[in-house]
Amino acid sequence: MFSKSWRSLLIGAALGVAVLSVQAADMAADAFIRQVSGDVIDAVKSDKAIQAGDFKKVVALVDARILPHVDFHRMTASAVGRYWRQASPEQQKRLEDEFKILLVRTYSGALAQIKDQVIDLKPLRAKPEDTEVVVRSEVKGKGEPIQLDYRLSKSGEAWKIYDVNVLGVWLVETYRASFAQEISASGIDGLIKKLADKNKAALAAKG
């Protein structure tokens, strides 16, 4: 079971990723966040299987509504940092694939914890023509509000997320530190193996 503080952080991070569940053609970044975060919260609240922690149902929700709208390439490259250019194309693909599984595994479980949360968006400090923005918000429910910020980029008409800040901690920066430590100790292949082993063990445990 999650502790109260860790559960709150995971809920915030899950919502941070989950807001990307629909297309956002010609929408401002904050309007996009407002619309889809409400849709995802409603979807979880209306599905008793997800609320009960049905892992397969949660993963299906993530696969269908979230993954197509996350810039995993940019997110992985940023998390690997300066070592990314040292990786071969094959290593880069494996890193991206394993990092994607890691994020799905880590945050899909938090979706089942959503109960009465709502998103309170802060005023967007950006120009209409900006293609790189930060949307700031708070997740409100029982207990203290959870700070939740999003880094979004726009390519064509679609917004995509490439980083999430929960309670003052940026997701990519957190992984960058641990990834750099692992690469320094055992190289890029060592990081790939560690991620793959953890993902396989976690998936096996879920059955």
Keywords:
7 helices, Nuclear Transport Factor 2, Chain: A, 207 residues, globular, alpha+beta
Global mean pLDDT: 81
Structural class call reads alpha+beta
What is the CATH domain class?
Alpha Beta
- Coarse shape: globular
Strand content: 15-25%
Based on the coordinates given, report the CATH architecture: Roll
Helix content: 55-70%
Alpha carbon gap, first and last residue:
18 Å
| Count of alpha and pi helical runs | 7
Q: Report the biggest beta sheet as strand number plus sense, adding barrel if it closes.
A: 5 strands, antiparallel
In angstroms, what is the radius of gyration?
17 Å
Number of strands: 5
Strand line-up of the largest beta sheet: 1-2-3-4-5
| CATH-derived topology | Nuclear Transport Factor 2, Chain: A
The SSE order reads: HHHHHHEEEEEH
Which consecutive residue ranges, at least 5 long each, have pLDDT under 50?
1-6, 20-24
Q: What's the CATH superfamily, by name?
A: Tgt2/MlaC
Describe the structure.
The chain is of the alpha+beta class and 207 residues long. The protein has seven helices and five strands. The chain has one domain: Tgt2/MlaC (Nuclear Transport Factor 2, Chain: A). It has helices spanning 4-18, 29-45, 48-51, 55-65, 72-80, 89-111, 171-206, and strands at residues 118-121, 132-140, 146-155, 158-166, 169-170.
Question: Summarize this, please?
Answer:
The chain contains 7 helices and 5 strands, in the order H-H-H-H-H-H-E-E-E-E-E-H. By secondary structure, the chain is α+β, with helices and mostly antiparallel strands.
How does the SSE layout of this entry go?
Blueprint: H1 4-18, H2 29-45, H3 48-51, H4 55-65, H5 72-80, H6 89-111, E1 118-121, E2 132-140, E3 146-155, E4 158-166, E5 169-170, H7 171-206
Antiparallel strand pairs: 1-2, 2-3, 3-4, 4-5
Helix pairs in contact: 1-6, 4-6, 5-6, 5-7, 6-7
